[in-house]
Structure formats: structure tokens, C-alpha cells
Design brief:
Layout: E1 2-11, E2 17-27, H1 35-43, H2 49-67, E3 77-83, E4 86-92, H3 96-102
Antiparallel strand pairs: 1-2, 3-4
């Protein structure tokens, strides 16, 4: 068990927060997720309800951001590879779930 801060955000049907609570907690992480795996599960419609909810809330928060004139830049991530002593540069587009995961922390 590890110490953590537990944020509880109560949202209305439009994804607007109407109550927020922060408290100390002790958590034990049993699931191991990565963005690619979560996005694949959501795309295949095999994700569990927690991840489905992440997508629903994430899309609502993106809509709110657009309505208030905000923008999110989906800047590609640079990836460097080495093959046979030669360096290569490629770019990876961020997955939708990466923004949804960051979404609740945005105003």
C-alpha cells in the first residue's frame, strides 16, 4: 500500500464538476495499464466499465474545452531508434486516451 491523494470529482451529465473532494488515502495498484492497450480495448469495445467511463468523461471534457474556445495541441512524440549503429527519428501521434486521462485535471 502506498500513500496517495484521492481526488473525487462528482460530475453532472454534461461532465461539469459540481463537487470535489480531496483526501489522503492508501492505495494498492493491482491493474497494469498502458495507453496502447487501453486504447485498443476501447476501440474493440472490450474495455471494462472504468475505462469506458474514462472515454465518456474524456469526450465530454473535450467538448467543454471546444465550447469555451480552448485548444489542446496533439503534438507528436519524438522517438529515437538505433539500428546497426545508425540513429533514426520517428514521430508517434498521441492516442485519444492520453488526453482523456489528463482531462479531469484541466479546468
Amino acid at each position: 500500500m502506498r500513500p496517495a491523494l484521492l481526488w473525487t470529482l462528482d460530475l453532472d451529465a454534461a461532465g461539469e464538476p459540481h463537487a470535489v473532494d480531496v483526501r489522503r488515502a492508501r492505495v494498492r495498484s493491482t491493474d497494469r495499464f498502458d495507453y496502447a492497450g487501453v486504447q485498443a480495448a476501447l476501440d474493440a469495445r472490450t474495455a471494462d466499465e472504468r475505462l469506458v467511463l474514462l472515454g465518456e468523461v474524456g469526450r465530454l471534457r473535450e467538448q467543454q474545452e471546444a465550447r469555451r474556445g480552448g485548444i489542446s495541441l496533439r503534438i507528436p512524440e519524438q522517438q529515437i531508434s538505433v539500428q546497426d549503429g545508425t540513429f533514426g527519428l520517428s514521430f508517434r501521434q498521441p492516442l485519444a486516451v492520453e488526453g482523456w486521462n489528463a482531462g479531469p485535471s484541466r479546468p
